[in-house]
Amino acid sequence: MRIDRNTGLVLEGGGMRGVFTSGVLDAFMKHDLYFPYIAAVSAGACNGLSYMSRQPRRARISNIDMLAKYDYIGLKHLVTQGCIFDPKLLYDRFPNELVRFDYDTYFHNPALFEMTVTNCNTGLAEYLSEKSGDRQRLTDICRASSSLPYVSKIVEVDGQPYLDGGIVDSIPVERAIQMGHEFNVVIMTRNRGYRNNSRDLKIPRYIYRNYPRLRAALSHRVAVYNAQLEQVERMEDEGRIMVIRPLKPMEVGRMERDVKKLEALYEEGFSLGEQFCTK
């Protein structure tokens, strides 16, 4: 596929289902396929960082190899650190010690990389980027974009409180269009036709009691996500976007710990990414 300045890349989140995205992006890097603009959410933001730093397999190692070794998902981390994913390991030891992140390559990459976050004060999505060289701010934005409500601490960036961007904008294709990218490639982590069958419930006042607009956003989360899924399928059918998504039935959960399932989903992503690059 030919990529020009009007082509954007959109990366959905999905927790551990994001290994599919890391597989697709590794295939992209194998074929030197890069985009001038990327809008990413949650796990998509984490995977997108390794794509921006031109580090093939780094996301795979972090998401699969290191999970088997360090078991970084669990209630023990929620109790001891306030997050169900071990934040000390993921946002400190991984990038700075165990699976070193190439900050220099990232900051010299001319592409614009925006990570979607939800402002807890306003209940609205914001799209933050960091290219000035501030490593801590870059880490904080990624952590905020990936901080799931209820099982993660609120993360402060530039004096503002943020949580997972997927609360409000799980698939930021409209943002990519607003930024001038008329055609977009969207990497999804759900099969076509998927809809969340959960019911939206009004969030009690004692939860996030200082953030009423966040509670309102959380109370409509399912409806908003399903509407976005419908929009993506409609735009795909109209030829306005190209979607890469899992074709096999999804067996990986948001907090999946089964390494074999994760490896299979990564390999599916890599295979579909290769097919996309060699069309």
> In this structure, how is the largest beta sheet organized?
8 strands, mixed
| Rg, nearest Å | 17 Å
Low-confidence stretches: none
Structural class: alpha/beta
Shape: globular
Output the helix-strand order: EHEHHHHHEEHEEHEHHEH
Number of helices: 11
For this entry, give a set of tags:
single chain, 279 residues, alpha/beta, eight-stranded mixed sheet, 11 helices, globular
List the helices and strands and how they pair.
Layout: E1 7-11, H1 19-30, E2 37-41, H2 43-52, H3 58-70, H4 75-81, H5 87-98, H6 103-108, E3 112-119, E4 125-128, H7 135-145, E5 155-157, E6 160-164, H8 173-178, E7 183-187, H9 212-219, H10 221-237, E8 241-244, H11 259-277
Parallel strand pairs: 1-2, 1-7, 2-3, 7-8
Antiparallel strand pairs: 3-4, 3-6, 5-6
Commentary on this structure:
- The protein is globular and about 55 Å long.
- By secondary structure, it is of the alpha/beta class.
- The longest helix is centred in the last third of the chain and has 19 residues, at 259-277.
- It has helices at 19-30, 43-52, 58-70, 75-81, 87-98, 103-108, 135-145, 173-178, 212-219, 221-237, 259-277; strands at residues 7-11, 37-41, 112-119, 125-128, 155-157, 160-164, 183-187, 241-244.
- It is built from eleven helices and eight strands.
- The model has no long low-confidence stretch (mean pLDDT 95).
Summarize the structure.
With 279 residues, this protein is of the alpha/beta class. The protein has helices spanning 19-30, 43-52, 58-70, 75-81, 87-98, 103-108, 135-145, 173-178, 212-219, 221-237, 259-277; strands at 7-11, 37-41, 112-119, 125-128, 155-157, 160-164, 183-187, 241-244.
